[in-house]
UniProtKB/TrEMBL annotation:
InterPro entries: CoA-transferase_III_domain, CoA-Trfase_fam_III, CoA-Trfase_III_dom3_sf, CoA-Trfase_III_dom_1_sf. Transmembrane segments: none annotated. This is CoA transferase. Keywords: Transferase. It comes from Agromyces allii. Gene3D superfamilies: Crotonobetainyl-coa:carnitine coa-transferase, domain 1 (3.40.50.10540), formyl-coa transferase, domain 3 (3.30.1540.10). The lineage of its organism: Bacteria, Bacillati, Actinomycetota, Actinomycetes, Micrococcales.
Length: 409
């Protein structure tokens, strides 16, 4: 391959992320020509050793292969002084730094934004988290299934009366990757204009919630409940137990539980001696059925507390009503509210990313047809007569300008 690789040719990205969301975002930057340097531990990134669907590959498993093209790998031990110093040298010449460490890890490694800004003031620093940089859910595991369950999305498909159904894709990870990708591009544009780097934060909960812009607005503005029909409207690549389970008073999402520990905690002796990486694949139906039967014996809160305390990945399954009032959603300010000139009070998902220097803002609500025709054409150089001729001929349409969104200039 010769010549420029893409629109981002000349930009350098330091990718210290793991699993899916961060690597996927960095891969997209690489696909557009950025020089993506993947900094891995000396043992390799975690995803190299966790083959989705059991597709281990020859040397590189499919999970890692699918998320890390267009990158060069540098293997460093960031817990050592030498490894950390080497990374700092890379940062000095980089345009973007991306990480999705657990909260607090970046600071312990000396690669938090405040530290790296001292080395490279113009760096665009992207931090991806499960639920936000702070707030009541800060330390919860940001796992795809749990985020899907919390987001309300599972109640928008399937048959009335059936268990809530997760998507057949790693939806939360993929959407978060796209959101982080957008954030990088916007921050780089800001830097081109001003020379200023900044911190960009993205979290999976907000990314997945704001993805449901239309559906949640139907609920919050149109006041239409999620009512599933009698017949379904509609992962085969994950070991058991992995899914939504009914409890005595609702549902929980449970992912990747160790079979020995799970069997002990739910009093299921059949799991004794079973391997999560063997029977977890070969006896998925039986594991699901036995787990489901046991979890029906107690409340959702009981299982979340009991299994969660043992380090298992378990969480609630929200509908939209619970999502909107969720304390982390409220803390994050995920939803925005404003007065629309024609629609009245509007509450809708806001912005999936945070920018420290150029935060997203609400300037106007959804426009009416042609509301800004005259304004925009005039800015483009059309005089009043030319605009009027377009309108009279039907080549253009204008609607009288409405008042600005309440509280917004």
């Amino acid at each position: 391959m010769t010549g420029a690789r893409g629109v981002l040719d000349g930009y350098r990205v330091i990718d210290c992320s793991i699993a899916m969301a961060g690597p996927f975002a960095a891969q997209r930057l690489g696909d557009l020509g950025a020089d993506v340097i993947k900094v891995e531990p000396t043992t390799g990134e975690w995803q190299r050793h966790a083959a989705a669907g059991g597709a281990a590959g020859n040397e590189i498993n499919v999970s890692f292969l699918s998320l890390n093209r267009n990158k060069r790998s540098v293997s460093l031990d960031l817990k050592s002084d030498g490894g950390k110093a080497a990374l700092h040298e890379l940062i000095a010449g980089a345009d973007v730094f991306l990480q999705n460490y657990r909260p607090g890890v970046a600071a312990r490694l000396g690669v938090d934004y405040a530290s790296l800004r001292e080395i490279n003031p113009s760096v665009v620093y992207v931090s991806i988290s499960g639920y936000g940089e702070d707030g009541p859910y800060r330390d919860r595991p940001g796992q795809d299934l749990l985020l899907q369950a919390m987001s309300g999305a599972m109640y928008s498909a399937g048959r009335d009366g059936d268990e809530p159904s997760p998507a057949g894709q790693y939806l939360a990870d993929a959407i978060t990757a796209s959101t982080a990708f957008e954030g990088v591009l916007a921050a780089l544009l800001h830097r081109e204009r001003t020379g200023e780097g900044q911190l960009v934060t993205v979290n999976m909960l907000d990314a997945l919630t704001t993805l449901q812009m239309q559906e949640l607005s139907v609920f919050t503005v149109g006041r239409k409940a999620q009512q599933r029909s009698a017949e379904p409207h509609a992962h085969v690549y994950i070991r058991a137990p992995y899914g939504v389970f009914e409890t005595s008073d609702g549902y929980v999402a449970l992912a990747f539980a160790d079979l020995h520990e799970l069997g002990r905690l739910i009093d299921e002796p059949a799991f004794e001696g079973w391997s999560s990486e063997v029977e977890g694949w070969t006896r998925r139906d039986e594991i699901h059925a036995r787990t489901a039967a046991k979890l029906r014996e107690a409340t959702a809160a009981h299982w979340i507390a009991t299994l969660g305390a043992a380090g298992m990945w378990i969480g609630p399954v929200n509908d939209y009503a619970k999502l909107v009032e969720d304390p982390q959603i409220v803390h994050n300010g995920t939803f925005i509210e404003y007065e629309h000139p024609t629609e009245g009070a509007v509450k809708t998902p806001g912005f999936p990313y945070r920018f420290s220097a150029t935060p997203p803002q609400l300037y106007r609500g959804a426009p009416r047809v042609g509301e800004h025709t005259r304004e925009v054409l005039a800015e483009a150089g059309f005089d009043a007569d030319a605009i009027e001729a377009l309108l009279v001929s039907g080549a253009a349409r204008a609607t009288d300008a409405a008042a600005a969104v309440a509280g917004v200039g």
